[in-house]
User: Fold these one by one.
Assistant:
Number 1:
Amino acid sequence: MSSGTVPRAGTVVREDEVVRYTFPERVGHWINGAAYTYLLGSGLALFTPFMYWMAAVLGGGATIRFWHPWVGLLYMATIVWMHSEWRSDMRAIPQDETWKKNIRAYVENRDDAMPPQERFNAGQKQFWWVMLWCSLILLVTGIVMWFPEKMPFSLHWVLTLFVFIHSAVALITIAAFIIHVYMSLWMTPGSMKAMIEGHVSTRWARAHHRLWYERITGRRN
Ligand code: HEM
């Protein structure tokens, strides 16, 4: 690769390595991860007295009440960015159905029993769509909750409803987030390196995302 070129995902870096995530993709993902982690801690502190000790860790009740919505906007900006980058890779393909039917083999780490996958497998796609839709709901309900004093008294039931929806949807994202972090850190060795350094070995790409590997390299083995 000549110096000064920005490698796109799928660029063959060396004979035995391909780019999995570009630098902008990784920066966007990690800002998103940091923002989500802050929202998780501050949100749980605002949600229940049992988790209020988190507020002390993050600077106090008034501080997290001020920053939580602003960090939420930063988080949403990175969600929009990630969506613009990965939208086409997140579309369903026929192989996804076979993947879902074989989910047991996937959980048992029997990759050889799984159908070949594109850049993202069906589980990664499902995770993304859950996070995207939940994030949009969190945004809408969160903006209303940001300015409770603007809500006319006769409509306070809407505020209560939105608080409930905001909390319930946040809990769904927490479940999805835990699975995502578990899968990335422990279930699929090499994933973390991909999101930090950007590239993976061709062996990794072939084992986990064979259709993607074949498409980007033009190789069949
Ligand atoms: C802060 C904790 C997080 C860690 C440690 C983490 C780790 C990772 C890793 C290692 C990958 C690469 C997976 C691969 O290519 O095989 C990845 C991909 C990805 N991450 Fe995260 N992530 C975190 C937070 C998030 C959050 C909060 C979101 C969404 C709101 C997110 C969305 C994604 C998406 C869509 C991908 C690509 C598809 C996938 O692998 O699921 N991540 N993440």
Note: DSSP finds ten helices and three strands in the chain.
Number 2:
Amino acid sequence: MKIGRRWLLAMCPVALVAGFASLPLNAQTVAPSSPPAAIAIAAPAQSAPQQAYTLPPEKLAKAIALSRIRITLGIAGAVWGIVFLWLLLAARAWVAIERWTQRISGRRWVQGLEFFAAFFLVTALAGLPLDATAHHFERAYGISVQAWGSWLGDQAKALGLTLLVGAPILLLFHWIVRRWPRRYWLAAWVVTLPILAFSIFLEPLFEPIFFHFEPLQKNHAALVSELEKVAARTGTNIPPSRMVLMKASVKTNGLNAYVSGLGATKRIVVWDTTAGRIPDDEVLFIFGHESGHYVLHHIAKGFVGSAVGLLFVYWACAAFAAWLVKRFGARWIDPKPEDLIHAEPALASRTGFVVLLFAISIAGFLTEPVVNAVSRHFEHQADVYGQEAIHGIVADPEKTAVAAFNDLGAAWLEDPHPNPFLVFWLYDHPSIQQRAGFAAHYDPWAIGGHGEFFKR
Ligand SMILES: [Zn+2]
């Protein structure tokens, strides 16, 4: 994951409605999991011989310190998001907001839009101090070079998009809850699927809101012709017109390349912090990795997995929310007493719907290790694929892959010895050490064999 994607995820209403939505999006990036979601605390440095990923001493100390900060902020942010919703429910703030919307307009749908816009605004403001703290440290450690004004501008843009896209979607989901009070979770699930698919398809259209793009061909013609060799070997149908350079350097020193979009919007994006700054061979490896996600149908598999998981999550959240409403509804929602005999009428109120969102945010936190385990599996497969894809094109695929991981790790200040439990819970990619360690010893051609995905 990298910065632009984080914003897109933050604004993606489906990601909020469905804690699972990050899977198909995350599965595409090659970069180490970036702040604040998935970085590790330092385990005591072990004197293991032959580490494939190493940092010079001064960078190592920085990486360990920054990892601790990222993990603390990441966990604090997740917990705070849940606690904040609960606090506002307990303080009956949503009841007050609902009454306020009723005073402004008599139309139900206008009230709904106001209420959900207020919901996004209030939660965004609540998250701002932690996000700003994270940005402060990313700047202090030289990862981010984005000035505060520009950063605030991006936050405002992300919020604007959320209001524009998210509020109508929550209005739709709330209508579903009122329309089918007993089986709304099933109807909501059916509606989530096309929204999820569209969010992947439309992602490239949102990216230029945060970054400038230009054809990769413009300043990196040699790299493009090398990339075409890999594209030919992998059979991915990505012509040079679909290879673009993202001007990331105005905001970050981090490295990345990724594939985004589906079908007509599919394209490879290489950051300008990557093309020309690390050897072209390493960019080819990253491109091979990205191609792997497509060739091995990780997007489609992630989508199906998310769909199956979401059905269960929605069902469980409906049951949990019904329990919450029966237990706390009299205090949180202010319903008529007879509405609490069954949970459905109370849940159908707008404040009741926030109880449902509260349940979903808890589910999102608890299911993160499952989603991440699947993601790490896909990422490992893509690493294998990427190394095989550049076989015969670069001189030494093993060395190239190991060097690429070292450059990625150094650019993002990735901890070489992350705590295994934190990797299990929070990492959507294997640790850089695991990835580099595998790459260093993966050479099926040495014994006359062939790759897992390529027969030559
Ligand atoms: Zn990947």
Note: The longest strand covers residues 267-271.
Number 3:
Amino acid sequence: MIDNLRLTTDRNTEQDWLKTNLARFTGMLQGQRDLTTVGRMLLSELAPLVNAQQGVIYQMETEESAGMVMLSTFAGDGNDSHLADSASETLDRSIELSLEDNADHLIAAIDAALGRLEAGTYGQCERCSQPIAEERLEALPWATKCIECKRLEERG
Ligand SMILES: [Zn+2]
């Protein structure tokens, strides 16, 4: 019970944080057409926010090639001041973003995530209704499915 309460409190705080930052991203990305620029902006903003020391952005390629193109990378200098506060917790943290389609798609995805935050369904898998893993949401804040469902979907 107490654990649940704490979880809810943490989650609320995190969602406030997310709401603020996702809204900022949409504002920032609005009007951007170049996915490389969008990826770089996103990564440079998102990495410090989640205390990631490394980040990679891939662009999903079309069905024919089914590969991923590395779009942008980020590596912190390791001398970040907030590293000292929570070194053990953040040491190995990295972000991997996969961007699909184009900037408009991404903005729409972020908008949808904001909608789910408003509706109170954020972080819930839209397929199986189970909570989406925290690590997944950190890497992909606008994820709509848990990793298992996403894999099922990709397998077709
Ligand atoms: Zn699921």
Note: The chain has one domain: 2-120.
